[in-house]
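Below is how a single chain appears once it has passed through the pipeline. First comes the sequence as given, then the structure the pipeline wrote out for it. We keep one example in the README because the format questions we get most often are answered faster by looking than by reading.
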Amino acid sequence: MIEQPKPQQSLSKQLLQIPVLVAALGYLVDMYDLFLFSVVRVPSLKAIGVPDDRLLPDGIMLLNWQMAGMLLGGIFWGILGDKRGRLSVLFGSILIYSLANIANGFVDSLPMYAALRFVAGVGLAGELGAGVTLVTEVLPKQIRGYGTTIVATMGVLGAIMAYFVADLFAWRISYFVGGGLGLMLLVLRMNVFESKIFEVVKERQVKRGDLMMLFNNRERFLKYIQCILVGLPIWFVVGILVTFSPEFGQAMGLTEPVVAGKAVMLTFTGQVFGDIASGLLSQYFKSRKKVIGSFIALSLIFVLIYLLAPMKDLSVFYLVCVFLGVANGYWALFVTIAAELFGTNLRATVATTVPNFVRGAVIPLTSLFVYGKGQVGTLNSALGVGLLTATLAFIALYFMEETFKKDMNYVETD
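Resulting structure:
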């Protein structure tokens, strides 16, 4: 057995360790950039000459390039995190992200924009998984949920911050701000220490970061797929319903046009409260599965309200966005359970690839949505995709192992 880090004297000292704070700030910067594009999509595309009738398809194209970068980056950073250490990811990912984000402020063509969103996606892919992996290994099992809740909540605040920065400054300056924040965080990370659990495994020469280990064992493979499916409803809401909220508002016949940036800000304001609530509830009930199941059900309810309720007033639409955000607030638990389900030699690989595969699932989900839009209309197409993601998530969660009391001091074997 691998020796666990010794608990510290007080809850506050355990939760306010430098690795927890740095992981939290890293996810803030991660989410800032990720949702800045949702906020500045329309003005930035118009600024580089994209006509109004191309704003939706070109916006989807750019989002898909970003998600493709996150898919590939998730694999790269995940393997690196298990082979070289969690800190290697925390340094490399933030540097690539920061430089790409600054470059985004200079784009003057659609191909350049797409290329830089791809590179930014590669950089962003390492933040959450490496941070959550480090936090779960540094903190005692009794309070892991509190630590990852802090990380996720700071991340959601980053998305809200993206709205206010984009509201105060031009879209190019907003990208510069994100890149500058990343470079500042890079300096702060000089004081972070590696997980003791990982260091012991590294010294023992255990096989680490072997992606094929996820596929050569049926039980591990099924656990991996379950983790991905449980997160799909979150990114259906974020990647489709919220990102393209102006188009949904138009399809609903709202009296006023929807401002995408405001919809993003309100949704993630709700998610702040959802992440806090889900984290605290999982600690109270000592169960990840029960809380995640409740939030998936709540998310489905508000998806149905969003798409089926006869809304005409813009303020009601924005209120529903807030509740969608609250129901989406199980992102921290979803990534935590992924980290807890696998041994130290595969933990970073799983915790980094799973959320990025969920984000990358926006590519087939948006493709399915666009195809259905031409067949049954915007609202009905979204409804079909939403019901599909919720059904898959419920099935996956039913068969998933409860991990609340699981120790982190173990490894996966061939």
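The domain at 15-398 is CATH 1.20.1250.20 (Growth Hormone; Chain: A;).

See the next section for the split statistics.
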